[in-house]
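Review form for a predicted model. The reviewer records the input and the model, then writes brief findings.
Reviewer: anonymous (R2)
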Amino acid sequence: MNRQVRIGQLIAPFGPGAIYIDRLGTPLVVCGLDNWFKNDKGNGLLSCENPDEFYIFEPRLAALLNVNRFCSPADFRLAHQGQQAPPNAFLHTPAQRFPRWYRNSRTRQLRKFNLNSERLDNPPEGRWLPVRFIAVCGAGHLSEFPWKQWIGCDCQGDGDLYLTDRGGSELSSIRVECHSCPEGSTGRRGRNLSNTTGKPNENEGEQSAFQKAGISCSGDRPWLGEGANEQGCNHPLVGALINQTNIYFPKTVSAIFLPDINLQDDSIMQLRNKIEEDGGTCGVALTLWGMKKRKEAIALVKISLDSREILHETAQVEQAVGSLFEPPKAVISSTLQPATQESDLLAFRRAEFNIIRNEVNDPVNIPNLRVIPADVPYQLVDWFTKVNLVERLRETRVFYGFDRLEPNARPLDGMPDIAMRQLFRNPMTQRQDQWLPAIKVFGEGIYLELNEQKITQWQEENIDWLAERLNDGFITRLSVVYQTLPPAINADRKWASKYLLVHSLAHILINQLVFECGYSTASLRERLYISNDPLAPMAGILIYTAAGDSEGTLGGLVRLGQKDRLEPIIRGAVSRASWCSADPVCSENLGGQGSRLVNLAACHACTLLPETACETINQGLDRAMIVGTPDNRHPGFMAQLVDEIYSLEG
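Model under review:
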């Protein structure tokens, strides 16, 4: 896969277990982590010339995922003739051929190859084309389509199978048969693929087409190599197309770097930064720290500092290590604490909210985060209370597994054991040996915070409209989407309306910013801070870019947060959102739109974004919360601004 996939794409969407189609049209499955960091000679990670180069340390993510070490995917480095090979040359992230079954374009015959087949022999006529169908189950297994079992073929080996595709729009136009089976047998007569891709509703006792045919999941895991099957899988097997979007849901989580705001000593802060640079040592030391072996952890850090000739004193090292390894909540001591218990992910996001809403301006001691307060345009003070320019941020993104058919509503349950079993053929059992892939990227952004009093007033004034628009079923569906970070106890209408408001506002702002900042829509990201807690509410939006490739960050986004530029951008965003080319259909309340019925007034013509830009994959949107509906603007949170815009336009 050298030079075919960017490093960031190996976190999502092409992490281990994903199907990737290369530039020649060959479908491949990205291999598990046992096979990463290997060169052409098959040596492992420990044989790299400089394995420390790939280590990444992020204490907040380590605490959340219970994994202390992260590694960046290796970039492929070619040694040019006549020149010395660069460090860690020829390392690559491997992928294997999947599906194994291929169809002859002329004769229609099926043939099964091996996972590691690099080249396919040329048939006497026609050419080999990969089949379009595979099979998956909800437990994450990935199998070949059970051609023989589906038609009842009992022939030895792979049989003499033929696949006929008449090009119709339905699966009934695709038929498989075996020419070696006896005349009159079911295998000889063949069978079409009708109903094989239907996902059964297990709650209602439905069965998949494979279950009805007596075909069970074999627990195949081709990304871990031949023979890596898990026995005893009882999940129903379902047919799928190789490019079907629901066969792979990568589980990722990211963290914005947060400084220790309680640390006042510049020398300790600089030493802390130096310690953090050695990600490998930090990962092992953090494991020792968690085992209450603090002296050993400090001794290991001191050895790393000595090897890099960094001057230090023992007392300084102890203080710096304590600042680095203590739980992230310890750095947030001066802010309001929520009245109700929050989920781990919501508490994780709150820690960022408490930092990023304040000024952080110390580029010498805190090089990875710089937040500069800006003035709120006076025309917008009714709706916004804070605008911060995030001139620099560091984001760490970690991949910790995947789901198939449906994303898990509780993805962090069972960590790290589930991730180790899914991503490694031979999982490590020792905490200090466990690792997950991650990337570290830098960027810039704009932070906006809405007026909490204005939100409360808006909800009280429009209580009847909100009750009519957001029924209990919609609120329940919205709270089930874990990416929305709902409250742990009571996801009510106040929370739901607040979430739809803030999330939709983030989308319309991104759609407007792309016309001004120079970045594409897919290059921008949202990060939402939303809570309806009575003591510590949150209503913040961070729109940022964190690019690891050639686009980089040159200030084109952050400069738009300045007072004279932000006001026309918000006005333009609200004006565009007030009418959609699909209205009035788009604004109609049909009880829910989208794949999970948790969108209302939102479509590709007005509000939806590329999936890389939205943290919920375009779930939980309703621009009517901001601008009302075409026949009734009054309930919109920013209806007054819409009226002002229309009055100025005449």
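Findings: The mean pLDDT is 90.
Further findings: The chain has three domains: 98-243, 253-331, 344-649.
Recommendation: see findings above.
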